[in-house]
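INFO  loader      accepted 1 record
INFO  loader      residues=214
INFO  predictor   begin
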Amino acid sequence: MGTIGQGILGGFSGKVGNVVGGNWKGIDYMRVKPASVANPKTEGQMDQRSKFTKVLQFLQPMKDYIKIGYQSYAVKMTEFNSAMSYLLKNAVAGEYPDFTIDYQNALLSKGALASSLNGVVNSPTAGTVSFTWDDNSNDGNAEKKDKAMVLVFNETRTEAVFVTDGANRNSGAQSLTVPTNYSGDVLHAFIAFVSEDGKKVSDSNYLGIVGGSD
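INFO  predictor   done
INFO  writer      dumping tokens
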């Protein structure tokens, strides 16, 4: 049985027929409970589930990075769900069952702050990944004290290592320590910036593949 709050025009919680009502973060919602499906493994359903799993496996290790990176883009949903939605639409390549992440289009941060300029990544020594970029702190809304957000995703192990409060934009460099056993693994590198007060973020830039300790 559902209960109605604030009169007949207010939201309700519970279930009425096949309609379910509730409240999330102060927002009343209603959704229709899906009917039972005779064949839950149709081609379309398996296709979508496979894409969902691929994106989830990619984003799960970097949840804290995503929480900052999608703070401006999430509307009436969590930052993680917002990132899931964006990547499902824009960053999945291939065909079922061999879906892959399109890293070039996989935005891990999305916002209006100026992005990095001419970012480069390499691994000078075992266990170290070095990021460099040009100082563009005089361009647009970029500021000298914007903080670098650098990340490497280990495709081989489905792990991520990142820093969300790195060097200032005008320093042009940030080192990231990764496990030495990443040697030989496929690492994908990303960089973004967050304002000093933490309220503005840039789109992330994909910098390519780097050998973790080669």
